[in-house]
Amino acid sequence: MSTPSIHCLKRSPLHLPSGIPGSPGCQRRHTLPANEFRCLTPEDAAGVFEIEREAFISVSGNCPLNLDEVRHFLTLCPELSLGWFVEGRLVAFIIGSLWDEERLTQESLTLHRPGGRTAHLHVLAVHRSFRQQGKGSVLLWRYLQHAGGQPAVRRAVLMCEDALVPFYQRFGFHPAGPCAVVVGSLTFTEMHCSLRGHAALRRNSDR
């Protein structure tokens, strides 16, 4: 079995839709890059889980992924993850995997289907010290450009609570109806997004 390669992102300007704040300016010089976006590795798993646990446990009592599942996806498909590092510190991340069915199922929570053409976004989380700064919006837009630039990936899907539907609609997601996945007493709306437009934006930003 071949080991999947990690596709690093080119440093390129972001082209964000109106109403979404841009990333902070980087005028000062640092030993570490002031802002770096890169795919995550299994070595990042502990830091990822620490942010995820703090973000979700206090709200819903559940984490989308446990630590072993974080390591699992960062080993199998690191190219479908993206972390935002500020001066070397992880401040926000997205973890995804490939899925090969039209709708999400309970199995989609833990499986990576290499032949799939759908990027399933399992979790987006921002460190508590960096919330309310627009970082989740910037990271999601950057992730969709990154995923759309991968030839095999045609669309993105996720599940969210009803209160978050308007947030994801700003990025081109549209509701596909109630999600078949249930976590405890929580129910979700399934959201779908074509990545064609995001792929075009990525190509233009690389020129």
From TrEMBL:
Task: List its EC numbers.
Answer: 2.3.1.87
User: Superkingdom, according to UniProt?
Assistant: Eukaryota
Keyword Phosphoprotein among UniProt keywords: yes
> Residue ranges of the N-acetyltransferase domain?
35-196
List the Pfam families: Acetyltransf_1
One GO biological-process annotation of the entry reads: melatonin biosynthetic process
Its primary localisation, in coarse terms, equals: cytoplasm
Do you know which InterPro entries this protein is assigned to? Acyl_CoA_acyltransferase (IPR016181), GNAT_dom (IPR000182), SNAT-like (IPR051635)
Its annotated function is as follows: Controls the night/day rhythm of melatonin production in the pineal gland. Catalyzes the N-acetylation of serotonin into N-acetylserotonin, the penultimate step in the synthesis of melatonin.
* UniProt similarity note: Belongs to the acetyltransferase family. AANAT subfamily.
From the Swiss-Prot or TrEMBL record, give the protein name: Serotonin N-acetyltransferase
Organism of derivation: Bison bison bison (North American plains bison)
